[in-house]
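Annual report, structural modelling task.

Input specification for the NAP complex:
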Amino acid sequence: MKLLSAALVLFSAAVSTTSGFAPATPLAFSRPSSSVRSASTLNMVADDAKVILVTGSSRGLGKAIALELGKAGQKVVVNYVSDGSKSSADETCEEIKAVGGDAIAVQCDTSDPKAIKGMFKEIVDAYGTCDVLVNNAGITKDTLVMRMKPEQWQSVIDVNLSGVFYCTQAFFKVAAKKRTGRIINISSVVGQIGNPGQANYAAAKGGVIGLTMSNAKEFSARNVTVNCICPGFIETDMTAELPEEYLEKVCEGIPLKRLGKPEEVGGMTKFLALDPAADYITGHCFNVDGGIAIGA
Ligand code: NAP
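The model returned the following structure:
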């Protein structure tokens, strides 16, 4: 995420459920190891662990989300696109295993439908299925409208909007047959309230909100829920690069007077992905933004 985007880009009772979405218990707290086998030989997780694809989880928010899900003892697919991110994706997998989950890394450009087909094949080969999709991968190419080149417009739409659509299509093929599944789309407050210099990003993120509502209605017959998270200004490597005085000014405009933490977005994602209480939630947007978009 680039500097300009920083200008604005800025729960759970364990109740019983029939949906199969109660969070899996990490092995150490569940049952003897002899009765618990992971689909992966890499780590042992509970039989009822969910297989969760988090797109763009080699770093940033996606990594924080993947780690939260790993801590909950799930099987996480860590997706990334750049060759240079292979080592950080592998490290993320090791961190997930260290906290009680299992993980595999899969390189795939989520704006390429053919590559997505291959990614889902890899997931099904490794874990047998896919239970939850977190559409997190995103890019920014910020500039003012009058200077925006077609490539800057198109690439952001391709990754941030079309990528969500293509991954959703591939995931729904698997989930529809099982008549269960959850999709969590990571949008942004920019998709709700706009931001100068981010016409492409705002259009894509606003599109993700529309896609969430439409897909929630379409997929409800198959018991697949679709929800959306709109993060505000979150502490990431990106914000760490910003001058302190600038960050102080930004915080003045946030009702809770601070930046969000990646784990806070991770916590909301975990709730929507795993909590039995989220069985009856679909088609909605949840802001994790310190109140910056109140009323949006
Ligand atoms: P980031 O640090 O730049 O990380 C982006 C991640 O997406 C990386 O893992 C990257 O993989 C991956 N990615 C990019 N293009 C991809 C593609 N075509 N296919 C597959 N993966 C791709 O971003 P972030 O700040 O964590 O943001 C994550 C999501 O949250 C984005 O959707 C963003 O719009 C949203 N968001 C962020 C903030 C914020 O304050 N950070 C606020 C609101 C919303 P590589 O490592 O291989 O490049």
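The chain has one domain: 2-288.
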